[in-house]
Each structure stands twice: as structure tokens, then as C-alpha cells.
Amino acid sequence: MPRSQKNDNFIDKTFTIIADILLQIIPTTQREKEAFTHYRDGMSAQSEGEYAEALQNYYEAMRLEIDPYDRSYILYNIGLIHTSNGEHAKALEYYFQALERNSSLPQALNNMAVICHYRGEQAIEEGDPETCEVWFDQAADYWKKAISLAPSNYIEAQNWLRITGRSKIK
After folding, report:
1. Nearest-CA neighbor of 158 among 168, 18, 104?
2. Most buried residue, 10, 56, 83, 101, by CB count within 10 Å?
3. Residue ranges of domains in the chain
4. pTM of the entire predicted model
């Protein structure tokens, strides 16, 4: 039984019912339906902190899904899991892959900026101001791109860009 059919949460159950109805109404192939089921089960597992199970579902969804736009969200969610696990290099790889398929993912750019900013903070703690500036400049570039896609979002990032003098778009 798919994970999404085991949910006790009212919202998850409602989403599952609506998604199942849509899958029956909208003309899709069996492969697309299976990919979506794995994606949905991955999201459910991820929301419960069951990252290994979520990754298994996302990898299976990736195997089945052929649409680049849909694949971008699967890759983005895989990146989120790696970010949560502190595997920042892996997370960045998945965010890059997601953006290659869908350049309109400000949330991926934001997460990449957060990782770069974190690495800049680490460089400060290690007494390496040159490396810090490189990471902060990279974070600024990602945040500027994210903000250009979603101007009313990322207020803290906008403030950081202004405070640090990095708000000018190159």
C-alpha cells in the first residue's frame, strides 16, 4: 500500500483523494501516474522526517518521470533532504540539476545562497576572511537571482544584501 494511503493527517488524506481523482480525470500514462505516486509518497515521508524512505521514493519517481519540469521538483526535494542532513555539497548538486531543468525555482536559489552564506560564516570562524568573501559573494549572487524571480520574498536576504553592500545587481 502506498504511503499516501496510510496517512492519518486530514490534509494529507484530502490531498491524496483530490490527487487520485485528478489522476483519473486527466489523461496521463501509467508511467506518469506511478511517478506521481512515488513523488507524493516521497513528500509524505519527507514531511515526517523519514528521509531514507523519501529518497527511495524520489529516486523511483526520477526513474519514471520524463518531464523536465516535474523532474526539477523531485531534484529540488532531494536537495532539501541533503540540506537537512548537512550534506551541503550533495544538496548543491541537486539544486543545480533542478535549476537546469527549471530556471524559475527561486527556492532552490535561496537554499543555495543559504548554504553559501553558512560556508562563509564557517570561514569567518576558521579565520579565513578571503574564503569568507568568496562564499558571501556567491550567496549574494544566488539571492539576487532568487529575488529577481520572487521580488516580495526573501526579505532577510534583501536586508543582508543592503547591509553588506552587495545589493547592486552586476
Report:
1. 168
2. 83
3. 1-90, 104-170
4. 0.84
